[in-house]
Every structure is written in C-alpha cells, then in structure tokens.
Design brief:
Blueprint (H helix, E strand, L loop, with lengths): L7 H69 L5 H11 L6 E8 L1 E2 L3 H10 L8 E4 L2 E4 L5 E2 L4 E3 L16 H13 L3 E2 L14 E9 L7 E10 H11 L7 E6 L9 E5 L11 E10 L2 E10 L13 H48 L3 E6 L4 E4 L1 H7 L3 H5 L3 H4 L5 H10 L6 E8 L5 E13 L2 E10 L2 H39 L3 E6 L2 E5 L1 H7 L4 H5 L17 H15 L1 E9 L5 E13 L2 E10 L1 H51 L6 H33 L7 E4 L1 H10 L1 H7 L2 E3 L6 E4 L1 H17 L6 E9 L3 E7 L33 H11 L4 E5 L5 E8 L3 H11 L1
C-alpha cells in the first residue's frame, strides 16, 4: 500500500496559509476588542451626559420657583417696602445658589416718570435718574413709552451700577419683558452682559410679571432674577455631583438663523474634536420661552471608567510572533511527517512483499529468535493452532512444542547450521489443548546481527484434525447460536429504546441522516419517517445560528469535535416543517457499526427553558428600569415637597416676626399663601397614600349604578379657580348616563385628568369631556385638551409610576403618580385606560366603564348561550 505524501512546495504553502490565517484572526480580534471597549465607554459617557441634562433641568426649575415665590409677595401685597423686599430676598437666597441679584422693576409709564424720580430722590437717592443704554454708553434715559428701571436690588453690594437702569432700553431685554407680560409667565432672556463693571461672564435674566389684581390686569412691574451662568454651571456640577472630567456648555438657540451661536457658557476643550476618542452629546431644553441647547463633551480617555487600549503594535506583533511560530511549527511537523512517511513507506512495502509470500504458503510459518521467542507468523499458523497473531507473538516455542523440553529446543537450535534446512517431527499444542503431530522444516540465518530461526510446519494428522475440528465446530455452532440470541435481544432492546424514546434521535453517516425515531418525526412536524429521511440536512436548521455562524459550518465543526473526542454536547436551533424555530440540547456520540463510523444524535426540545431564560432577563431589565424610575421619582419628590414646605416656613416666619406690626389684610394673605402651599403638600401626600393603597390592594371601593355627570361636575368645580385664571372652558354632555362605578374614585380620576389637561393647555383654550355607550354593555369616556400633545414614545409610559412627559413641559410640576393612580382605579372597575394624540393637536385620554353590574352582564351572557 502506498502512502501519499505532500511535496515541499505544498508544505510551504500550507505553512504560509497558517501564517495568513493567524494574522487575519489577530487583526479581527484586535478590532473587535477595540470596538467593544469603545462602545462600553460611550455608554458610560452617555450616562454622565444624561445626568448633566437632568441636573440642569431641575436646577432651572428651582430658579423659576424662586422667582415665582418673590412674584407672589408683590402680587398679593399692596405695597412692598424696600426693607421687606430685602427680607424676602434674603430668605429666598438663603440656600446655595448662583444668583447675581434679585430685582424689582416697577412699570413706569412716560407720564409717571417725573413723579417716580422725585419719589426716589425723596427716599434719599439725591441724584437718582432713570438711566438707559445708548450708543454712547449709560446715560439718562431719553423719552420712551414706558420704563422698567431697577428699583429694589438685593444684594446691593456689587450691583450698584444696575440701580436705576432701565432694562427696556436694551432690545433683547425689552422683548423678554413684553413676552412675560403677554404670556403671564416667567421668561428667560438670551445671553446678556450685565451692566456691572466687575462682571465678565454671561447672565440669564428670569423675568416674572406682577399684575395688580391677578393675570392680565393692571401691570405693576417685574420681579427679576439675574443668574450668572458660569457660576450656575459650577453650582450644578457641585450640587449634582457631575463628572468633572467632561466639559459642558449651555447655548441659546431660540432665534438661531445667522449661524452664530449664543453661548451662556462653553467650557474650553484642548483636545482635537475630530479625534476618535472625542465624544459629544446634546439635548434641547424648552424653558422660559427659550430653547437651550445643552452639550456635554470631552475626551473618553479622561473618564475614570476608561480602560486604556493596548498599543497598536502589541496585538499585531504578538499575533505575528504566534502566527509565525505556528507556521514554522506546522512546516517542521509536515516536513518531519513527510520524511517519516517516506521511510515507513519503503519499509512497509518490503514487509508487505515478505508477508505476502508467507501468507500464500499453505504451511504454517513461525519465525523465532535463538531463544525460541516467536517473532512472526502467518495466517495459516493462527488457523492451525487457534491462537491470534498477537497471542502467538507473545509466546515462546516451549509453550507450543509439546514433545521437546526447553533444554532440548535450545540444544536443537544451537545444533542447526546456518543456511542448512533440517526436517524433523514434533507435536504442537493448540490453544484448545489438542496435540497436533507436525512436520517441521527449519533453517537458521542471521539478519542485522541477530540469529533467527524460520520454521515451516505441516499438520500430519488430517484425520485427527478433522475430528477435532468437528468437535470444535459443534461447540462453535452452539456458541454462535447463543451469541446470535444475545445480539437479537440487544437489537430488540436498542430498537425499543430508539423508537420509544421521548427524545429525538438521528443516526447519521457523515452529513447524511440514515435513520431517526418517531419522536424526531413528531418534533419536526413531518408526516412520516420516510418523508423526513428524503430531505437534505439544510432544511432542519435556519441558515444562521443565533451566534451569527452559518448552520452548515457550525454543524461540521460540531461533528469534527465529536469524531475527535468521541462525544460532544451543545445547544442548537432547529426548524420544523412549518418553518417554526425551536431550541434543542444536542448530544453527539461516535459509534462504530460493522467497521463503519456512525454518529448518534440525541436532542431534546428546550424552547420552554430558553423562553423562561429570556423572560427572566426581561424581568431583570424591567426591575432595573423600575429601580431607576423610582430613584428619579425620589429626587423629584424631594424637590416637590421641599418647595411648598419652604413657602410654609418662609411665610410662617414672616408672619411670626411681624404679627404685631403688619396689617391684618397682609397677615391674612400670609395665611392664604401658607394654606396654598400646605394644600399642595397635602395633595402630594394623598397621591402617595392612594398609590400605596392601590398597590397593596387595600383601597376600598363602593360600586353602584349611578349618573356619571355627578363626579364630572364635582371634579370641574374643584378646578374652577384654575380654569378661570387660564380662561379655559370645559364642555361635557348634558344628557344623563348611568354606569357602574365608585363615585368618589371616579371623581378622583376626572380630577386628575382635568388637572393634567389644564397644565398642558394654552390660555383661552378648551377641554372637552364626552361619554358614549359602546357594544357589550360598556361606556367609552374621553377627556380631550388642545395642548401640545404627548410624544409618541411616551403614550404608554405616562401611565407608569414615577413617569412624566418632559419633552415640551419641563416647567410643569408633578410627581408622576396621577395617571398611574387613574390606571389602577380604572382597572379596579374592570375597565382600561389609554392615551392618544388628536390629529389636529392636543391629547385625548380615554377609558371604559361598565354600564351594568358584572352579575347582570354574566346573566345575559349565560342566557345568550
């Protein structure tokens, strides 16, 4: 038999291929690791950026609340003195802040200017005149339709130059105060350089209009908060623990048409912005009538979480060295193997020719050394003596020859002459214990300095041999029958296990399926085994496995592992006859049947286990999201509770200090403000208690058939003052409509939905409530507003606890519990609630109630059946 060997050129090409493959794997691995690390650090950066955006949003809300609190003092007070203003301002600035000053700007028409300046001089400001910003600098204000001078300012120190300055002389500030007056809300200016000489950073001015008797009546003036934006950013970074390795900017993009950015603040960044490690994230904030562009940026390498990537030359050098070593090792192995195969081939050819001659001889042949150790035999020897070749090669002639003793055999071997053939007779003992008279032709010779004795043996007792063989044949036949019965029993047992097994089983030869059991046919959904076995292997699996590797390539790799190790276990995605994919746990076992290699493939459907793993993973992600939402809720709730509590303490403190000197009407207003703040705090706590009761199932319901108009009218009455302030009308049907509900809880649902609609509705708009009977004994109720609507991605999330829509309404207060409570109450009524966006603008909240009692509905259903 010839053994194929590769040429040196082929060995070199194979080694070169090993080198190329190693370099490709090294390169792919380097880019994969680099990309994975890059994605991970980008996600860390985005979390820091999101934290920055949320911190700015909350901090700006706090500043708006501060301005609104001071505005309430001027709105409800007849005349606020300078000392009283300083006291209020001192209370509001007691906490850490970035405010340059709090100002009061009275509204002065042109005809009132002289009287106002005289009043100020009488207060001790001898040279007081309203000053304005002109092309020549700060000068006495020229005639104008009206003035808005800085009258009260706290603190005065460091802000003296702003005293008496007419902010309406600056076009940008004039536009801001006009907008604040028109919309009756806090308006923030674009970036402004202050008139204070010592101030170099940009500032944002928060203007809040103050009317004589409520919204859109006689304008009294403006409360102004001057916010130093650089200091404000440093305050936010410190108070909210922002990442100091990143840079931040705040830019006003409200009227960005020229392409020139209006930055409040932009922190310098020294690295190249087009580098691979530079990262930028932006968000837009709608606040105080302005659009701010918030940016977080920086070099990812400055983050603590950044893990330095390996130098570019190390992976390639390491991969090159490993690949080169593997190529050299492969070439050496192939060259060594080729050389050995050539030598083995020559020797094997000689052995084959020599053994062929021996096998063609009809006599038995034994080759021994001088001591009688058997070195080689032919097949006739094994047939004659009954020993296997391996057994004979482990024996000595003294064990076979039954006539001569060991000493006689050694003496006979020593007496033989080299090259001379000697004929003699003896008796050999077979493996079965039978004595055979034999004739021996023996010769002694030398090969490779070793003395060898060759013997050709012929059996002389054919008759005895025939009898012995007959006896042996009888025993062999009985043994054969017994062995056949055992094989039949094993076959039946295997077929029973094979066919009755609940696990699917394939028997394959290479990549071809040659047999399967009934469980396999059922699992894959085919009509019969015959139909399944006709199909190619490619139909039993999708083109790609979940890890991205092609199925046929991965299948070949699994088979090779099984052939090498004897067995292999792995998970695999299969495809049924109807195209459905399912997961299986596969066990491959290598078998040797009739001299041929077969693969036993056992598999079990683990789709349910996989589905459970996916559900557990989703549950884990949902829990993490809920925990994050709860954390944000607690931060927001602390702010929501602190604001009214701060108002209660402030006005209670002022009332306590001035109870003996302040006017009774003003003292009453203090109590009104304290009551309003306390009511707001009570509303927050009620929402928390209701949410806890609904979550634990302790909320009590009193269901009854009653008119739905009653809870609607009560909920509208609760919101009457707010509706009047914003001049919003509510429309709902006059027809009575009976439904099955708890009146108090349904009133709570309407109150939450109407309050929510008012918050997001523009002034002088309307809210429409409607209810219409539907099929199957249900009532469809809707509450619609004409506000800005709800972002599509928030339509489902707004009913989750601790969730608010902040896309367009960052300044709207709330805890995120109102809609979640509505959802729980409606579900307790066996209904459902959802939100939609109206095509012509605004949001619609809809929910379903039962018209009749559940018992009545069940009775009707049974009668229909």
């Amino acid at each position: 038999m010839k053994i194929a060997t590769g040429s040196i050129k082929q060995n070199f090409l194979i080694s070169l291929l090993i080198l190329v493959i190693g370099l490709l794997i090294t390169t792919a691995r380097y880019f994969y690791i680099a990309d994975s690390r890059q994605q991970a650090i980008v996600q860390v950066f985005e979390r820091h950026a999101d934290h920055y955006f949320l911190a700015i949003e909350r901090a700006v809300k706090s500043e708006i609340e501060r301005v609104n609190s001071l505005s309430a003092v001027f709105e409800y007070g007849r005349e606020v003195g300078r000392d009283e203003f300083n006291h209020y301002a001192n209370v509001l600035l007691a906490s850490k802040n970035a405010i340059q000053s709090l100002n009061w700007l009275p509204y002065i028409p042109y005809e009132e200017r002289a009287r106002y300046e005289a009043k100020m001089r009488a207060e001790g400001f001898t040279n007081f005149s309203i000053i304005a910003k002109t092309a020549k600098g700060l000068q006495v204000a020229p005639p104008a339709e009206y003035y808005a001078p800085v009258d009260y300012i706290y603190p005065l120190k460091g802000n003296e130059t702003a005293f008496g300055f007419d902010v309406s002389s600056v076009p940008a500030e004039k536009a801001a105060i006009e907008s604040a007056k028109f919309f009756d809300q806090v308006i923030i200016t674009q970036p402004i350089e202050l008139v204070q000489e010592l101030e170099s950073q940009k500032a944002a001015l928060f203007y809040s209009p103050v009317f004589e008797n409520g919204p859109h009546t006689l304008l009294k003036g403006y409360v102004v908060s001057v916010l130093r934006m650089q200091t404000f950013l440093e305050f936010v970074k410190q108070d909210y623990f922002l990442n100091t390795s990143l840079k931040y900017s705040i830019e006003d993009v409200t009227n960005e048409v020229s392409g020139n950015p209006l930055f409040f603040v932009k922190e310098a960044f020294s690295q190249e912005e087009d580098s691979d490690t530079f990262q930028l994230s932006t968000r837009y904030l709608n606040v105080g009538g302005q659009y701010w562009k918030l940016s977080a940026y920086g070099d990812l390498r400055n983050l603590e979480e950044y893990e330095a990537q390996p130098a570019e030359w190390r992976p390639f050098l390491g991969g090159l060295m490993i690949s080169l070593f593997a190529a050299l090792l492969g070439f050496g192995y192939l060259h060594y193997r080729r050389k050995n195969l050539l030598n083995e081939q020559t020797i094997e050819d000689e052995k084959v020719r020599y053994q062929s001659l021996l096998e063609q001889n009809s006599d038995a042949f034994l080759l021994t050394d001088e001591a009688g150790q058997v070195l080689n035999v032919n097949d006739e020897t094994t047939r004659m003596l009954g020993y296997s070749r391996d057994e004979l090669l482990a024996m000595n002639m003294k064990q076979l020859d039954n006539k001569f003793s060991e000493e006689e055999l050694l003496e006979r071997a020593n007496q033989l002459e080299f090259g001379k053939r000697v004929l003699l007779e003896s008796t050999y003992l077979t493996k079965g214990g039978i004595e055979l008279p034999v004739e021996i032709r023996t010769t002694k010779f030398i090969v490779d300095d070793q003395i060898l004795v060759s013997s050709f043996v012929r059996n002389l007792t054919e008759r005895l041999q025939y009898n012995a063989l007959s006896m042996d044949n009888t025993a062999l036949e009985e043994a054969l029958r017994q062995y056949t019965r055992e094989l039949e029993e094993q076959k039946n047992a295997f077929e029973t296990v094979f066919n009755k097994s609940s696990d699917g089983i394939f028997i394959s030869s290479g990549r071809r399926v040659i047999d399967c059991n009934e469980a396999t046919v059922r699992t894959f959904g085919y009509a019969s085994k015959e139909e399944l076995l006709k199909l190619p292997n490619s139909v039993f699996a999708p083109k790609f496995q979940p890890d991205g590797e092609k199925s046929h390539r991965k299948g070949n790799r699994m088979l090779m592992i099984c052939l090498q190790k004897g067995s292999h276990t792995y998970e695999w995605v299969n495809r049924r006859a109807n195209g459905e994919l399912f997961w299986t746990d596969v066990v491959l076992t290598r078998l040797n049947l009739n001299g041929e290699t077969r693969i036993h493939i056992a598999f079990r459907d683990i789709s349910k286990r996989k589905q459970l793993e996916i559900e557990l993973l989703k549950a884990k992600e949902h829990a993490e999201q809920a925990n994050q939402a709860k954390t944000e809720f607690l931060a927001n709730m602390s702010h929501e509770i602190r604001t009214p509590l701060h108002g209660i303490l402030s006005y209670a403190n002022m009332g306590s200090d001035r109870a003996e000197t302040v006017e009774r009407e003003k003292l009453t207003r203090y109590f009104d403000l304290i009551n309003a703040s306390a009511q707001r705090l009570m509303s927050l706590l009620n929402d928390l208690l209701d949410s806890a009761k609904l979550e634990t199932g302790k909320m009590q319901f009193n269901f009854a058939l009653q008119d739905i108009k009653n809870p609607i009218e009560l909920a509208v009455s609760e919101q009457a003052s707010v509706l009047q302030d914003k001049q919003i009308q509510i429309e709902f049907p006059e027809d009575d409509q009976i439904a099955y509900f708890d009146r108090q809880r349904l009133q709570q649902v309407f109150a939450n939905l109407i309050s929510n609609a008012i918050k997001f509705s523009k002034p002088q708009s309307k809210i429409i409530i409607d209810y219409q009977p539907q099929g199957h004994g249900t009532l469809l109720v809707s509450v619609r507003d004409y506000g800005t609507g709800i972002p599509d991605e928030m339509l489902l999330a707004i009913f989750d606890k601790f969730t608010q829509s902040r896309e367009y309404h960052q300044s709207v207060p709330g805890t995120g519990l109102g809609l979640a409570i509505c959802k729980e109450i409606i579900h307790a009524h066996k209904g459902k609630i959802w939100a939609e966006n109206a095509p012509d603008g605004g949001a619609i909240f809809k929910f379903i109630l039962l018209i009749e009692t559940p018992e009545t509905e069940m009775s009707k259903d049974s009668n229909d059946e």
